[in-house]
């Protein structure tokens, strides 16, 4: 079975990477799909985010990285994927994720959302936390892959 792991990944964190690494154990292929959201002003372009994720998932043969616009369920159907993979951290994620999963179900009955609980080491970690820390010159190398930490340092220097 093919799974899509959709998200902003602005930037990809070790929490995301953990979900990807566990996803490939469960699924035949995981397509990490970077959402180009016209309503958000990202730190990195979608192309850059794809490049960053490709770099840090090089060791995972069953991972593909791509970007998309539009509805996630349409993207999933295009790639014959039956599963949307999402991560759950705290209770506030649950509310948002459940709403999204139900909405997607109304759009496509065939597509299932599968949640993986965060690794407890990364339950506090989000892309926005990383950006906030980096903005004020704090250490981020324990939160994001090495190539991403480098790109962030360059961005804020
Ligand atoms: P979105 O804007 O779609 O929420 P994100 O890049 O913030 O995109 O997150 C993509 C997915 O990864 C979401 O399901 C989110 O809950 C999950 N996620 C984000 N950070 C972590 C983490 N530290 N541990 C587990 N899952 C995470």
Describe this structure in words.
This protein has 157 residues and is of the alpha/beta class. It has one domain (2-156): Rossmann fold. 43% of the residues lie in helices and 20% in strands. The chain contains six helices and five strands, in the order E-H-E-H-E-H-E-H-E-H-H. It has helices spanning 14-26, 46-56, 72-78, 91-107, 127-135, 146-156; strands at residues 2-7, 29-35, 63-68, 83-88, 112-117. The protein has a five-stranded parallel beta sheet, with helices on both faces. The longest helix has 17 residues, at 91-107. The radius of gyration is 15 Å and the shape is globular. The model has no long low-confidence stretch (mean pLDDT 96). Bound molecules: adenosine-5'-diphosphate (ADP). Adenosine-5'-diphosphate binds at residues 7-9, 13, 15-16, 19, 86-87, 89, 93, 118, 122, 125-127.
Provide a short characterization of the protein structure.
With 157 residues, the chain is α/β, with parallel strands linked by helices.
């Amino acid at each position: 079975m093919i799974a899509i792991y959709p998200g902003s990944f602005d930037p990809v964190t070790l929490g995301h990477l953990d979900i990807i690494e566990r996803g490939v154990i469960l699924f035949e292929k995981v397509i990490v799909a970077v959402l180009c959201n016209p309503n958000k002003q990202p730190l990195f372009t979608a192309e850059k985010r794809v490049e960053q994720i490709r770099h840090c998932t090089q060791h995972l043969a069953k991972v593909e990285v791509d970007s998309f616009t539009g509805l996630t369920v349409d993207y999933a159907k295009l790639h014959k994927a039956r599963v949307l993979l999402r991560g759950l951290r705290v209770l506030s994620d649950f509310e948002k994720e459940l709403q999204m999963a139900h909405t997607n179900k109304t759009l496509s009955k065939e597509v299932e959302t599968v949640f993986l609980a965060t690794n407890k080491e990364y339950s506090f970690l989000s892309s926005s936390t990383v950006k906030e820390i980096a903005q004020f010159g704090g250490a981020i190398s324990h939160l994001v892959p090495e190539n991403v930490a480098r790109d962030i340092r360059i961005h804020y220097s």
